[in-house]
């Protein structure tokens, strides 16, 4: 498949522009800040459920006499 000279020249120009920009990329594209993916209320509820269920399991195991 042949390409036109004009199309090839445009590709070369774009490539050369990118070469001159090399190294000028920001260190990270992610936002820096304290933006948590989960809200503090949801996180607190999750911790409450996990710790509460583990305490409930420990109490239930202690009252039934161990692992039987």
TrEMBL record:
Cellular component terms (Gene Ontology): endoplasmic reticulum membrane
Principal cellular location given in the protein's record: endoplasmic reticulum
Name of this protein: Stress-associated endoplasmic reticulum protein 2-like
Record bears the keyword Zinc: no
Subcellular location: Endoplasmic reticulum membrane
Family in the record: Belongs to the RAMP4 family.
Listed GO biological process terms: endoplasmic reticulum unfolded protein response
Gene name in the database record: LOC115749421
Membrane topology: Single-pass membrane protein
Origin: domain of life: Eukaryota
Cited Pfam families: RAMP4
Endoplasmic reticulum recorded as keyword: yes
Keywords assigned: Endoplasmic reticulum, Membrane, Transmembrane, Transmembrane helix
Native source organism of the sequence: Rhodamnia argentea
Transmembrane segments: 41-59
């Amino acid at each position: 498949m042949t390409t036109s000279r004009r199309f090839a020249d445009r590709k070369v120009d774009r490539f050369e522009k990118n070469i001159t920009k090399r190294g000028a990329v920001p260190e990270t594209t992610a936002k820096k800040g304290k933006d948590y993916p989960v809200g503090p209320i949801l996180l607190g509820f999750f911790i409450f459920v996990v710790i509460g269920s583990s305490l409930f399991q420990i109490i239930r195991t202690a009252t039934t006499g161990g692992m039987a």
